[in-house]
């Protein structure tokens, strides 16, 4: 088990030490559940009351919260970011693979870097290039002409079709499919004619893609996910989408084809974005928002309906169906009022 003294962690984080710097820390915890040897954090005032009762060996605190705390602490501007960095230092997640398993099938034309690890029943196709220290979990299949950058990790049962390029330090979780055909068809008198999807997928550095997410290959050009993007579980990225640097996309979101999303956007859960839309940098879409036109100004956008009692929802649903009739009546009243005004002039 990894262990650091509080003073060592403080040096790593660039914070201010309060209390005993020789306390040993081996894991992270919440304020409520923290015990000896663990470090907790306070980033939400909602949990302020737990600070004085916590049994954690130390706490990550902002300067304002540290004033009234008598225990061991590291004081810094953003305790939540500090928690993330400490959690990385103390991470106990096992490797996706630790060596090249005898059951792995590697095409003779594939090129493997130093320290590559392949789990049981991994399949590596023709002309694949794996960078140094790449880890490929059990049952994963990588199609021909793929490139995977150094220190990238693929968990078990990932499927990567042909001509997919991943950058360095990426994490791809189980069940995810990269490079499946986009939904491209032409209709000839009621019959669907498939359009071969001949583009690829290009994924930058430091990208993480959650479990059971699908990223379709481009129809002609590539589908592109740029550096630092994070994508949650069960997300659909359609053909020829482009996602800008450091954008975050939450679970069950669906992007139709040829969507362009800018940098530093936050896309909430169950968002749906219509095809050929453009979303500029710095946009935040809250959960269940439906985007039917391009967004050209940064800001927060919403379209979902908050929950209510079923009784209220039924009444509102009935009234919604009456909106068109109400609109027509209002227009008639406005015309009648206009006639009266004209007659009185």
From TrEMBL:
Gene3D superfamilies registered for this protein in UniProt: 1.20.5.170, Hexapeptide repeat proteins, MurE/MurF, N-terminal domain
Keyword Transmembrane included in the entry's annotation: no
Active site: 239 (proton acceptor)
Keyword set, alphabetical order: Acyltransferase, Lipid A biosynthesis, Lipid biosynthesis, Lipid metabolism, Repeat, Transferase
Residue intervals of the UDP-3-O-[3-hydroxymyristoyl] glucosamine N-acyltransferase non-repeat region domain: 23-89
Record domain Mannose-1-phosphate guanyltransferase C-terminal: where: 101-181
Catalysed transformations (reactions): a UDP-3-O-[(3R)-3-hydroxyacyl]-alpha-D-glucosamine + a (3R)-hydroxyacyl-[ACP] = a UDP-2-N,3-O-bis[(3R)-3-hydroxyacyl]-alpha-D-glucosamine + holo-[ACP] + H(+)
Keyword Transferase: yes
Gene Ontology, cellular component aspect: membrane
Pathway membership: Bacterial outer membrane biogenesis; LPS lipid A biosynthesis
EC number: 2.3.1.191
GO molecular function: N-acyltransferase activity; UDP-3-O-[(3R)-3-hydroxyacyl]-glucosamine N-acyltransferase activity
InterPro entries associated with the record: GMPPB_C, LpxD, Trimer_LpxA-like_sf, UDP_GlcNAc_AcTrfase_non-rep
Pfam families, per database record: GMPPB_C, LpxD
GO biological process, one term: lipid A biosynthetic process
HAMAP family: LpxD (MF_00523)
Family: Belongs to the transferase hexapeptide repeat family. LpxD subfamily.
Record's subunit section: Homotrimer.
NCBIfam families hit by this protein: lipid_A_lpxD (TIGR01853), PRK00892.1 (NF002060)
Function: Catalyzes the N-acylation of UDP-3-O-acylglucosamine using 3-hydroxyacyl-ACP as the acyl donor. Is involved in the biosynthesis of lipid A, a phosphorylated glycolipid that anchors the lipopolysaccharide to the outer membrane of the cell.
The protein's name in its UniProt record: UDP-3-O-acylglucosamine N-acyltransferase
